[in-house]
């Protein structure tokens, strides 16, 4: 079967793969929509039970958006440090601009456009495109890896005694058969085990990230030296800052719930952080879904509707509204930074001084570290991305 697939024309294979991605995305959206409709109609409360006061809701949506924007500050900081460590002298404003503009690329299947946009914008600001590609993968792996660790470590908070009985039967059966339910009933066991595992695995994680980066760019920014590995101490420090990032995303989700009138106590912030982390990481892993659309909302509504004080209808509305708040925050930040922060392209200045206006510049005329085009980066991104 695999040999037959390999004999197919590459363009046809690409078309088949794209059809599969979009088909899976449509199936997920259909299932989540049907599930949301079923949960909505199963709720005995009336629509007025949402207790929506629109000025109150707007205020908490703004709070949610601010918290969500702050949650990406550690990612910008880590990415900027990596870019500077690889020899590029790009200002922090331009790094922030490239980061948030590239953030919108995740809303296409495969999510490779994130790498392309950020790489091109760093390149236009005078940086090296190859180093931008490498560091994008460093940052993404560190951020989502920390989110996965948070999701595992905080699993016990999703299974208190009053919620365990409301877990779907198939999930409850799976947890019992694998004996995970017994472990989840032990407070802080998963948290302690995850912390120890992360500390032990840091050197290994550093080597793995370096290998992945080497596939994207076999040489460093200057010369033919290998891609510099991520220092273990630097990686550990970044994971600590990413804990703040996931906490802020939990606060963002909590603010939406408060705005909708749910009984969402701030003392349960660990719970909201856990739910936010699981849904975000799950959406990220669903490479067929643009921006994790459908997958993230499905996880959110399943987890939120099981929590006391939330209920089915508030959980459904919160899942959709959280997506809208986060999307509007991303679009607003990208639009403002793209409009207000304008790069002074060193490459453009060099090209105009080195060549007459009527002479074309070919890729072979540029230095090796600058002769990098969008198709090249797209190929590298797709080669090492999960898709």
TrEMBL record:
Origin, by domain of life? Bacteria
- Region feature Disordered, mapped onto this chain: 349-370
User: Which ranges does the record mark as transmembrane?
Assistant: 20-37, 57-79, 136-159, 186-205, 243-264, 270-293
Keyword Transit peptide part of the UniProt annotation: no
Keyword terms of this UniProt record: Membrane, Transmembrane, Transmembrane helix
Spell out the protein name for this chain: Flippase-like domain-containing protein
Its source organism is Calycomorphotria hydatis
